[in-house]
């Protein structure tokens, strides 16, 4: 729908030349926003499609671990809030697929890539939600990490993505407060509830740090993305911001972060964290996380079971058009 | 005293509020099961939306039941959460229709359509209740159910008149659900008392309008109204299908595992 006007444009690489590239970079450098119909280097378009679609996939797959607790939420207030939250994630996915459509990548094609296992999504959603406290930990830590990552994207050079992120960030920050409040309620609750909160923190802390991606020394895409102002901060910078923001929150909750090496640097005030298990990260990204198979199987099942509905809707719509024309 | 079960003093007003609240909660819960699994992202959001509306309606009605229920022993009072999480299957008062398992998207839509075609005019009529709180709940609920009816009507037509396969699935859903529709219009002595006071309407007066709405949409959907006249009932008096127990086991497990805890 968003891409219809773009369908007849010549493919950008035919037009690429040094002058266009220079003009493009000048626009980027002057903080101009690039819009859907503007000329852009093919590599810029590809980078954005990859990033936006991975983000969209993460929202859709991200519905599953939390969705598993909607039917078991322990109060009606929590049930309504969680259902609304998971619905928001679906909305973010929809919004982001629409942003990708402005770059000529259809939702159907992107979703096929996801279901065929060819597309990536955030590693964090391949961990299981074992207890109710996981819903608190996800809101607090995972949404907290997502916000750190996404706030700078509100200034991304590509207009449709930047605008989508403004709305997404508003909702994410609400989710993060909601998650923290669940953790606070548990931390102040019975011994069993407090133990549940600590256990969730133990399991979600390190995967949350991995959400920022590989260390700067290993990051493949960063340099060009930084020049194009798609990315404003490095993985390690964002990770450090997140740790610095989260440590005092854990202290406030009376919970212990599962890192014996965690200490505050006296000079910078930064919280220095221990070694991240990058082997685990690689394995989860490669498809070997505890829930990778389940997540893709759920997504495929929903897609396959919905096929007759989509076919019927298309058939009905086509008939309405022909009836109207007749 | 920390408790893991509750007793409810079911005066006519309390019973009435619980029946309507239980319909909304159980149906909302069923819709919430679809979150993340719908045929398209748009439908995922729409079903969650309807579920959220229904859970919201349930909360308002449970709050009303709690206000109207005479104090329990020791001055304790029930709350929305004790009603939802600490009543057993036999204490639930919802329509059987609302507790039936989802099945495919067609059955989810058909169930919601048959219910919405009843509950929307029902709440509209209840806006004239002599009870100001009930009238206010009805006014808010009706805005929501009008949309639910529109949304599900469109889908019944689209799927009934879509492909041969979707038509067959919708006809099968209708046949499956039909015998659970009669209970919506039932009334009993407790409700007759409230009707006499002008507090509630007689649900049976909704029947003819409901039938017309259903027939109109089914005609456009090229679906056929089932001929069977036999109607199942029992939910209103706590005689449920086997399905509700499983639903409650899942829904209530956590609060029941930690009596008195705050979540």
Automatic annotation (TrEMBL), chain A:
InterPro entries: Aromatic_CoA_ox/epox, Ferritin-like, Ferritin-like_SF, PaaA, PaaA_PaaC
GO cellular component terms given for this protein: cytosol
Gene3D superfamilies: 1.20.1260.10
Enzyme class: oxidoreductase
Domain of life: Bacteria
SUPFAM superfamilies: Ferritin-like (SSF47240)
GO biological process: phenylacetate catabolic process
PANTHER family hit by this protein: 1,2-PHENYLACETYL-COA EPOXIDASE, SUBUNIT A, PHENYLACETIC ACID DEGRADATION PROTEIN PAA
Protein name per Swiss-Prot or TrEMBL: 1,2-phenylacetyl-CoA epoxidase subunit A
Protein source organism: Acetobacter cerevisiae
From TrEMBL, chain B:
EC numbers on record: 1.14.13.149
Listed Pfam families: PaaA_PaaC
Alphabetized InterPro entries for the sequence: Aromatic_CoA_ox/epox, Ferritin-like, Ferritin-like_SF, PaaA_PaaC, PaaC
Molecular function in Gene Ontology: phenylacetyl-CoA 1,2-epoxidase activity
GO cellular component: cytosol
A Gene Ontology biological process term: phenylacetate catabolic process
Keyword Nucleotidyltransferase annotated: no
Enzyme class: oxidoreductase
Keywords on record: Oxidoreductase
Protein name per the record: Phenylacetate-CoA oxygenase subunit PaaC
Phylogenetic lineage: Bacteria, Pseudomonadati, Pseudomonadota, Alphaproteobacteria, Acetobacterales
Gene that specifies this protein: paaC
């Amino acid at each position: 729908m968003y891409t219809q006007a773009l369908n007849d444009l010549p493919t950008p690489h035919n037009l690429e030349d040094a002058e266009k590239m220079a003009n493009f970079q000048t626009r980027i450098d002057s903080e101009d926003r690039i819009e859907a119909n503007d000329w852009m280097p093919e590599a810029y378009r590809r980078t954005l499609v990859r990033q936006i679609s991975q983000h969209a996939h993460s929202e859709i797959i991200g519905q599953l671990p939390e969705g598993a607790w909607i039917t078991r939420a322990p109060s009606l207030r929590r049930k309504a809030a969680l259902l609304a939250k998971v619905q928001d994630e679906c909305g973010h996915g929809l919004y982001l697929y629409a942003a990708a459509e402005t770059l000529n990548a259809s939702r159907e094609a992107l979703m096929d890539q996801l279901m065929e296992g060819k597309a990536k999504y955030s590693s964090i959603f391949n961990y299981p939600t074992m207890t109710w406290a996981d819903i608190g930990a996800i809101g607090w830590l995972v949404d907290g990490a997502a916000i750190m990552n996404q706030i700078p994207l509100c200034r991304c050079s590509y207009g449709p993505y930047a605008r989508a992120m403004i709305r997404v960030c508003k909702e994410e920050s609400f989710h993060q407060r909601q998650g923290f409040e669940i953790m606070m309620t548990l931390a102040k609750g019975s011994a069993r509830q407090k133990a549940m909160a600590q256990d969730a923190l133990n399991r979600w802390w390190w995967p949350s740090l991995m959400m920022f991606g590989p260390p700067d020394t290993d990051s493949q895409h960063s340099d060009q993305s930084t020049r194009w102002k798609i990315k404003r901060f490095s993985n390690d910078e964002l990770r450090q911001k997140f740790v610095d923001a989260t440590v005092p929150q854990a202290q406030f909750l009376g919970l212990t972060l599962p890192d014996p090496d965690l200490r505050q640097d006296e000079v910078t005030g930064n919280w220095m964290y221990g070694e991240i298990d990058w082997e685990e990260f690689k394995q989860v990204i490669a498809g070997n996380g505890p829930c990778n198979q389940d997540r893709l199987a759920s997504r495929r099942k929903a897609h396959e079971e919905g096929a007759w509905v989509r076919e019927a809707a298309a058939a009905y719509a086509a008939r309405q058009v022909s009836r109207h024309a007749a | 005293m920390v408790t893991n079960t509750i007793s409810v003093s079911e005066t006519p007003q309390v019973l009435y509020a619980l029946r309507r609240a239980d319909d909304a909660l159980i149906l909302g819960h069923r819709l919430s099961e679809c979150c993340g699994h719908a045929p398209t992202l748009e439908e995922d959001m729409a079903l969650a939306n309807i579920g959220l509306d229904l859970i919201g309606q349930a909360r308002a009605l449970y709050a009303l039941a709690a206000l109207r229920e005479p104090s329990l022993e020791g001055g304790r009072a029930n709350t929305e959460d004790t009603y939802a999480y600490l009543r057993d299957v036999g204490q639930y008062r919802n329509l059987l229709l609302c507790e039936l398992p989802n099945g495919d998207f067609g059955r989810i839509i058909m169930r919601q359509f048959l219910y919405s075609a009843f509950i929307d005019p029902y709440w509209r009529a209840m806006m004239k209740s002599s009870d100001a709180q009930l009238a206010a709940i009805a006014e808010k609920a009706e805005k929501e159910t009008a949309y639910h009816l529109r949304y599900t009507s469109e889908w019944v037509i689209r799927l009934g008149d879509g492909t041969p396969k979707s038509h067959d699935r919708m006809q099968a859903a209708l046949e499956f659900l039909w015998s659970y529709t009669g209970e919506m219009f039932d009334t009993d002595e407790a409700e007759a008392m409230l009707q006499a006071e002008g507090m509630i309407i007689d649900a049976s007066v909704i029947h003819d309008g409901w039938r017309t709405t259903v027939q109109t949409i089914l005609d456009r959907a090229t679906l056929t109204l089932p001929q069977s006249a036999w109607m199942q009932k029992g939910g209103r008096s706590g005689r449920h299908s086997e399905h509700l127990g499983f639903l409650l086991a899942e829904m209530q497990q956590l609060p029941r595992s930690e009596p008195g805890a705050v979540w």
